[in-house]
Design a protein that fits this description.
It is a single chain. It is built from 11 helices and 19 strands. The chain is α/β, with parallel strands linked by helices. The chain has a single domain (2-179, 272-405), classed as FAD/NAD(P)-binding domain, CATH 3.50.50.60. A hairpin with a 4-residue loop joins strand 8 (124-131) and strand 9 (136-142). It is globular and about 60 Å long. The protein binds flavin-adenine dinucleotide (FAD). Flavin-adenine dinucleotide is lined by residues 6-12, 29-32, 36, 40-44, 101, 125-126, 161-163, 167, 186, 188, 227, 268, 287-289, 295, 298, 300-302, 304.
Length: 411
């Protein structure tokens, strides 16, 4: 089997590594000249760590990253409301791990470059995809400006891992991407500032109707991610101009620009959206190409990596002759259901919890924070919380036929 993966972002690279382990050859096509460097994901939940372990990259991720300890909700004065000690489940081999996306991308790329079954083509912008009964193809614009030409790549399947503006999804469904866009933009900043000095934990969610934010340590050398909300009317220039006042007002110690070292300021519109289907013929969608959610709670790439883990199991089953193509319908059905039943409601509540809740009554009125509070007194409730970290997982190997009931490999 030969699979064309559109997009060499984290989901595409992990999918390629998983397929290589199943002896499946992949060609990755990416419009950029190298991996994306923007400040986005950093926290990967145990369900995603499971997939990275299968892809053979966990040791290197742990070498460069770290396992965070406590998660705390606070009011805007920085006072604790309630929290989850050792939220990462550090006793588990699948403990939540932190590594900024650009550093994760480097680790994944190094592993892919060592795999002879993986070929990566940069500067290769896919403009359309198609499939028939026997094959799938992608048409891409390649080459430098003024020398651009079109090339066609053929394989058995196309996997669209080309992110939020996916051209694969647009080819299949046009602008149809049902869901909603929040009336807020999130400003993701990376900053050196000693939050520990003010008693902050590794992950902090600050509940406030105006100055809500997340502050989390993202590297071993003390870089922090501060993501806060801004009015959607503000342009990038206004966002950059407002940032010092925003920091001074909301961060502990009320710092002035000389008190911290700011590395990045990245504005993002935030969405809850899911494609109508993750399979059309021989074309599949995964991760941000298939679904989006706001970043509070870190379910975006975590959900995407769980998708590609499942998709790899389906394709591996077909390659081994223990599953037929109908397993891809299961992939579509189950992964969409997980987004609708878990990722969308949980990530939406995470955002509303920080931005539209009264911090004074949060542990009484907010069902989740009530549970977090109870978990500090009742181990059974804590066990439930820990188990919920795996709620988006699904074992697609259960649909593989037993050895006595093998189906003929079709490809
Ligand atoms: C501020 C912020 C914080 C976040 N924090 C977290 C977090 O802590 N944990 C978490 O799990 N998630 C988090 N997320 C979400 C996470 O960053 C995304 O879910 C993740 O990056 C999606 O990965 P992807 O591989 O699907 O897409 P992308 O990372 O967007 O990669 C897509 C790739 O496809 C390529 N491409 C695009 N179009 C084409 C084309 N036409 N042809 C060829 N190639 C193409 C691009 O160049 C890119 O390399 C966060 C997001 C934001 C904005």
């Amino acid at each position: 089997m030969h699979v064309i993966i559109v997009g060499a972002g984290p989901s595409g690279l992990v999918l390629a590594l998983l397929l290589a382990k199943a002896n499946i050859r992949t060609t990755l096509l990416d419009s950029a000249s190298t991996i994306d460097d923007r400040p986005r994901a950093a926290h990967y939940a145990p369900s995603a760590i499971q997939v990275m372990a299968r892809a053979g990259v966990l040791e290197d991720i742990r070498r460069d990253g770290f396992i965070p300890m406590n998660m705390m909700w606070r009011n805007v004065k920085g006072e604790p409301i309630t929290g989850i000690p050792k939220v990462s489940q550090p006793w588990s081999p699948e403990a939540m791990t932190v590594l900024p996306l650009n550093m994760l991308g480097k680790v994944l790329l190094e592993h892919c470059e060592k795999e002879e079954r993986i070929e990566i083509k940069w500067n290769c912008k896919v403009v359309s995809v198609g499939s028939d009964a026997g094959k799938a193809w992608a048409v891409a614009e390649v080459g430098r400006e003024f020398e651009k030409r079109e090339e066609r790549y053929e394989g058995d399947y196309i996997c669209g891992c080309d992110g939020a503006n996916s051209q694969v999804r647009r080819t299949l469904f046009g602008n149809e991407f049902p869901g909603n866009t929040w009336d807020a933009q999130i400003i993701a900043t990376n900053v050196y500032y000693p939050f520990e000095k003010f008693g902050y934990d590794d992950i902090n969610f600050i509940i406030d109707n105006e100055d809500y934010y997340m502050a989390a340590k993202i590297t071993n050398d003390g870089l922090w991610r501060v993501s806060y909300g801004e009015d959607t009317k503000h342009t990038l220039d206004q966002v950059v101009a407002n940032q010092p006042a925003k920091y001074e007002r909301m961060l502990p110690g009320h710092p002035k620009p000389g008190d911290y070292k700011l590395l990045n300021v990245g504005p993002y519109r935030i969405h809850q959206r899911c494609a109508p289907s993750f399979r059309v013929g021989r074309i599949l969608l995964a991760a941000d190409a298939a679904h989006l959610c706001n970043p509070f709670g870190g379910l975006g790439l975590t959900g995407g990596l769980v998708d590609v883990g499942g998709l790899a199991e389906c394709l591996e089953g077909m390659e081994k002759g223990v599953a037929d193509e109908s397993i891809l319908n299961k992939y579509d059905e189950i992964r969409r259901q997980m987004w609708h039943d878990v990722i969308n409601p949980v990530s939406s509540s995470n955002f509303l919890r920080v931005s539209a809740t009264d911090p004074e009554t949060a542990t009484v009125k907010d069902e989740f924070l009530k549970m977090v509070d109870e978990a500090s007194r009742d181990q059974k409730v804590r066990d439930e919380l820990d188990k919920a970290m795996y709620a988006i997982c699904h074992d697609f190997k259960q649909y593989w036929k037993t050895p006595g009931n093998r189906v003929e490999a079709k490809l």
